[in-house]
Design a protein that fits this description.
single chain; alpha/beta; Urease, subunit C, domain 1; TIM Barrel; nine-stranded mixed sheet; 17 helices; 27% strand; globular
Length: 574
Amino acid sequence: MKNLIDVAMKREKGDLVIKNARIFNVFTGQIERGDIAVKGGMIAAVGNGYEGIEEIDAEGKVLLPGLIDSHIHIESSMLSPEAWAGLASPHGTTAIIADPHEIVNVCGVEGAEYMKEAFSRIKMDGVPPIDLYLELPSCVPATPFETSGACIDGAETARQLARGIFFGLGEMMNFPAVISADEEVLAKLQAAERCGVPIDGHAPGVLGEALSAYRAAGVITDHESLSTEECCEKVARGMYVQVRCGSSTNNLADAAKAVDDFNFRRFVLCSDDKNAKDLSAAGHIDDALRRLVAAGVPAKYAIPMATLNIAECYHLKGVGAVAPGYVADMVLVDDVENFKVRATVKRGKVVSREGRALFGSTSRYLPQAVRSTVFIKPVTAESFRILSHGGRMRAMQVVPHSLFTDEVFFTLPAGEAKLKGTEFLKLAVVERHHATGNIGLGFVKGYGLHGGAIGISVAHDSHNLVVLGDDDGAMSEVVALLERAGGGMALVDRDGEDVFPLDIAGLMSSRGVEEVISRTEALRERARRMGVTEGLEPFMNLAFLSLPAIPKIKLTDRGLFDLTKYSFVPLEEV
């Protein structure tokens, strides 16, 4: 404290002084010109005439607080924590609220411990370039209607939160159980309340009395608002609305219309799921800021949504502002329209400059707990055979640019289902955690693929193997490729086969950023050549067809599930 005071009073030089900056003030919405003096990783002063042991001339560029992602699943990038940090830091990211929901559904709590340890090893001069606030997933499994690699009940939730290694309770996707006051779910919420940790939400379309019940249970955020009106109602009920700018889903346009000069403090930015290609090409939270301002939200409202609002939402002390007594997490950008990041400062250390991370890792932390995670019973072409009795067959209708599906019906002649030449494909979810032999089978309309099969071991949220195709033999080959690779993305078409291994829990790759982007994009392009419908991301949309937490109809390893009825439904109605 004395050192900070002495620097502020110019009795002592700062460790770092950023001079000639245009400093954005999140408290006033104004930009002021001056210097920032840093001592011991903290901001000592904002003013003029300061001297530092190290000095940086900002040359009139804008200095913002470090950018924070209020809700992210790192696994969705398919990158290791080390590779992800090296990609995100040059885009101004200095902290994330991370829900390791995906890897914990595969590996249990050991998956979360892996993420925490991997991030702890990323340092530059002893400083972590990105702070990880790790949440304990609340829904493992996501629903009781699928087989996951682990199970965390109310008692285990209480035990894990009491350890003190988790910052909060991850998104509570099982909103029907919250609203119906299910005892097991209430035990998880009460454990979080006792430990005094935040509870994140996931409640698409939950309004009225149901929303009041959900909020009364202690949930503070939601990233699943489906309309401007829903954003407004959730803010009115005391929630923070997370404005999502991800690769698969994006509610930014609807949320932007809800923001006004009174309620903007109740909106926070997040990416949720963003793949490596989009992170590299478009950016992270800096991308969300660009889009939000382009959508008409004033920069003076948008910037707090990526900084101060998040810090206040999650009670992050001393974070989210460029002001004396705050942690020296800062981002230098050209302007507050394009948000082109020139440098990222973490605790007073320049950790990224001109699009390049100044830290690195020569090796990946890869404990055995997150390796070799695919265990299945033998599968053949016969495993995907579907018999029709001549009745109405139920199918998922995919919707471009959306994770939602509709329900449609079609008829098939009695006997073995033959789909070649039709607009329907077979979908299979193969259980891969305990070799139970479970295979859920169904039909999909509107995907467009023909001449083979594609598959992936990223299948939200229990991450079994999900395979789509018009040829049973090709589907069995895809499963074999995924099993041998220990998980990944695989494809079989008329020209042969290809697979990209995801050797970390079947979700992420230990390879470098460029290889992950090039190999996964090559597979996507090859799948697109098989006719995948415009507006569908070939593998990521496939990964969400097994998620029974998003309406309307989805497939798990146990069968076809209708979220509107909250029950399994038959494939055929006779």
